[in-house]
Specification:
The structure is a single chain. With 315 residues, this protein is an alpha/beta fold. It has one domain: Aldolase class I (TIM Barrel, Alpha-Beta Barrel), CATH 3.20.20.70. Helix content is 35%, strand content 14%. The chain has 11 helices and 8 strands. The protein has an 8-stranded mixed sheet with strand order 1-2-3-4-5-6-7-8. It is globular and about 50 Å long. The N and C termini lie far apart (48 Å).
Length: 315
């Protein structure tokens, strides 16, 4: 199957930009391939864009995954292969799928995960030995009460933290991924400090988006971006100062403090990730803004809910 036919399943640049009614198994964009192997999840996150009929709610068979890997390997342009979910670590065959990808000589292999199964050291080692180069781990708070308010699973914070520590101890890179909501945006700087103490190699903040399970909860989840952005900016600065790669996605650049252009330049955490987030819209204040070319705009649902009053063009 040629790459173009895989891309045709999803004309958008990333999973967060796919309508919830659209089933997606693979998204290829700018050297990155996200393989949505599907399956259930052992969290029930309020912010999940996969859950409750979200864009990646189907399950790929092992044969389908192997076939997709072969097609991508033949194409030769994929720099980063990501095993995405549901929660991919709940697939019994994930280590075998990772090994198959490694045998096909993919440069970088990532597992996008809530990190809970990585808390079992033997399992984390099995994945690293199979060929995982890094893990992108969802961590939504610096303490259990914040993280577990969003995951809705008691004990999930302790397991995720153990998983991050295990992965780093085994030599794998760890990208901490935090979805920014009303519940946690004030803790963003503390999350950055905590990620550094855990040994994370990168930190990515993403504003909550109305996809999947988060769609119905969006009005109660999303913060005013003009209030949240200074906390996120401080967190990005803290992370950068401690040697972590750091980025913020989903925030229009006009609401960030003076160094907004620097945040725009640092959106990518790793190779081939620049431009993965997209789908924003631009309103009347954007027409004369000098940062528009670098800006991702505002999610349509945010603009519909809150309007454009908090935004102003940057001269």
């Amino acid at each position: 199957m040629p790459i173009t036919s895989i891309q045709a399943q999803c004309p958008h640049p990333g999973p967060a930009d796919v309508d919830s009614a659209t089933a997606v198994s693979l998204v290829v964009h700018k050297g990155r391939a996200d393989l949505f192997v599907g399956g259930p999840c052992n969290n029930y996150c309020r912010v999940c864009y996969h859950g409750d009929g979200g864009p990646a709610s189907g399950v790929m068979s092992r044969d389908e995954v192997i076939a997709a890997l072969g097609t991508l390997a033949l194409d030769g342009r994929v720099e980063l292969l990501v095993f995405n979910g549901g929660e991919p670590t709940l697939r019994a065959d994930l280590p075998q799928l990772v090994r198959a990808a490694k045998d096909l000589a993919f440069r970088s292999i990532r597992v996008q995960t809530n990190g809970r199964r990585l808390g079992y050291h033997a399992y984390a080692r099995e994945l690293v030995d199979a060929g995982v180069s890094d893990f992108a781990v969802a961590l939504h708070g610096p303490r259990a009460e914040v993280h577990e308010f969003l995951t809705r699973v008691p004990g999930s914070f302790r397991q995720t933290v153990a998983g991050i520590r295990n992965a780093r101890g085994l030599g794998a890179a760890v990208i901490v991924e935090c979805v920014v909501t009303r519940a946690n945006y004030r803790q963003a700087p503390e999350i950055a400090r905590f990620a550094h103490r855990l040994g994370a190699t990168a930190l990515r903040f993403t504003l909550v988006r109305p996809e999947g399970r988060a769609r119905a909860l969006f009005p109660s989840l999303v913060p005013n971006v003009s209030l949240a952005a200074p906390y996120v900016r401080e967190a990005v600065d803290l992370a950068l100062g401690r040697g972590l790669a750091a980025s913020a996605a989903g925030f229009p650049l006009c609401v960030l403090p003076a160094a907004a252009g620097e945040v725009a330049a640092r959106r990518a955490i790793g190779p081939a990730e620049a431009g993965l987030s997209g789908g924003g819209v631009f309103g009347p204040p954007c027409a004369a803004c000098r940062l528009r070319a670098a800006c991702g705009g505002v999610h349509p649902a945010y603009a519909e809910t809150f309007g454009w009053r908090e935004f102003a063009a940057v001269d």
